Amino acid sequence: MELSGGEIVIQSLKDEGVEYVFGYPGGCVLHIYDAIFKQDAVQHVLVRHEQGATHAADGYARSSGKPGVVLVTSGPGATNAVTGIATAFMDSIPMVIITGQVPRPVIGTDAFQEVDTVGITRPCVKHNFLVKNVSDIAETMKKAFFIATSGRPGPVVVDIPKDITDPNIKVPYSYPEDVSMRSYQPTVSGDIGQTRKAVKLIQEAKRPVIYSGGGVILGEASEELRTLCHTLQFPVTQTLMGLGAFPGTDPQSMGMLGMHGTYEANMAMHDSDLIIAIGARFDDRVTGKIAEFCPHAKIIHIDVDPASISKTITVDVPIVGQVKPILLDMLAQIEGLGETFDRARIADWWNKIEEWRAVDCMAYDMNSGTIKPQYVIEQLYKVTKGEAFVTSDVGQHQMFAAQFYPFDKPRRWINSGGLGTMGFGLPAAMGVKFAHPEANVACVTGEGSIQMCLQELSTMLQYDTPVKVINLNNGFLGMVRQWQEFTYKRRYSHSYLEALPDFKKLAEAYGHVGMQITKKEDVEPALREAFAMKDRTVFLDFLTDTEENVYPMIESGKAHNDMVMAPSSKYKKGSS
Amino acid sequence: MSRQHIISLLLENEAGALSRVSGLFSARAYNIESLTVAPTQDPSLSRLTLVTVGSEETIEQIKKQLNKLVDVVKLIDLSESFSLERELALIKVKKTDAIVNKVEALSKDSSAHITDETDGYLIIELAGEKPWLDDLLLSLTDDILEIVRSGVIGLSRGERALSL
Q1: CATH architecture of A192-357
Q2: Smallest Cβ distance to A307: which of B16, B20, B64?
Q3: N or C: which end of chain A has fewer CB within 10 A?
């Protein structure tokens, strides 16, 4: 089969099994777009801004486990995509981003819409390629998908000069079945000797904590994690990225840990004698003050990326490899111990955890006349029976969603954890909807974040991807305001959003349903009404309490046992 | 405790591979004292040698991050094995009897020699271990008109080799 470069790009996607490409046309990708026009196996989704394309592909990838694919033009097309690429990079999301480049003869001449895409994206991709010959396109595409989806996943950029996509230059095409690279061989199975050492520590621990992260979801190891946790009967805490890998409603779950984690999770980490870190990377939002992180604990760390081991926290037993086979190894060894594995030794530990739990650390003022943001999330949980896919933007609303919507399944909670990208939620929700057309999808956002990628409301109408937008509108950049309250004596420098649009009318102008909710008693009925409109995108603008805070909070640079507690909790100073 | 390490890499000989390495150092705020790169006998591979300084933890992290780069095929820390290191320097000086005598004296137990003389100016070629070179150049500071150094290269001694 002889194909042009433009056709090879699309045929490669088809052979890779790609369903959707999120993109935006422009000069340097016109040949590729012409190839898209002439086929219907790969569906193209026309976004309104390239950042939206990357977040939509990202949401698709996070919710489905399949790589997200983006196609943008050179210059501004590529630079607009950078935020979304960096977002995916920080959270290890598999994506392939195809960027047009100016024709080879003019590269380096400051041609119209030329930027050094490979240079600009280098620090925020797993790898990138500038394809120099039409005959290299197919193999490069194969390599891109291989790199993006294997090992620790991540985004891969393929930069393609316009002249090698010329429809008049055809070359023989065959898509490689597989590809091997001498310089890229990700580790698969963990070292069995290390697993044995880990099991020995597990047998001896009296105050163990399982600390699991997004790697469990990426490694499709949620089932194995559940079995392991239930076999061990150890307490479990999950990172922001890991929520749902272990059921949030399980009695063994202590909820999230870290800066806005629960009292019980953070106190347990601090007092633990054995931390079992699984697919988590000891992010600074998790560890707090490094010098006082888990001072009494030995640490086991399972991770597919050797560079994650002992990066910030020195660990005792590292196990490098894919989470799933390592957990299966561990399970087999523990099951082999039979009755000799003593679970009674952690009874006291569970008693202590129950004491911490009784503090009810996330309690908020239920009698307030205002709409509390936590209340909205609780009602959202109730109305969707905890089964929805929930995307979020970044800020207080993100933390409230993570705290008050316990996820029982992996890939249901979609948020920008590492980069913290405002504007992520709405296009990500659209991407989720492409992967799961029948599912309920909610985008929890705030009046600050939503305005960063609002234009995708238009794309959502065009492609009929009904999402419920839960706008927690407090008129403030809430998290900024909270930090200003705590550390800048309430000097609210530029955290107040004046001249907000009428979101109800705005939604209507985009052809969607808009609702504004101002009374607490209307929250649940409004949500029910919105979710009953199965085939409509509904924008619910909740006017919430303006100065509610996210509790508990470990302030920057403080230790796990040094939390600012909610005034409504039962915490008494010195009671721990 | 900070210590100097010489790290050698086999790198895919592709456009942009060098900038992935140098970009990693600037992005993660690692020190880089020298860096030198050229193709090997296999034209698809380059050998890159860099000198960096850091604590054991930092060096460990540098090596892991380098290994993570898709273009890095293989890596060796020469400071961990019995290795030989060399750096080449070319210096330009005005020809004087004192300089000529000094180089002649040096040439008895080192590779130092005058490699060019043009219009009363000399180019002196010096090759040796970095500390020796550093000391020597310090003693010539006042005479040096121009200097270029290659950066350190090295090989491990004996059977051990960085090859595919």
Answers
A1: 3-Layer(aba) Sandwich (3.40)
A2: B64
A3: N
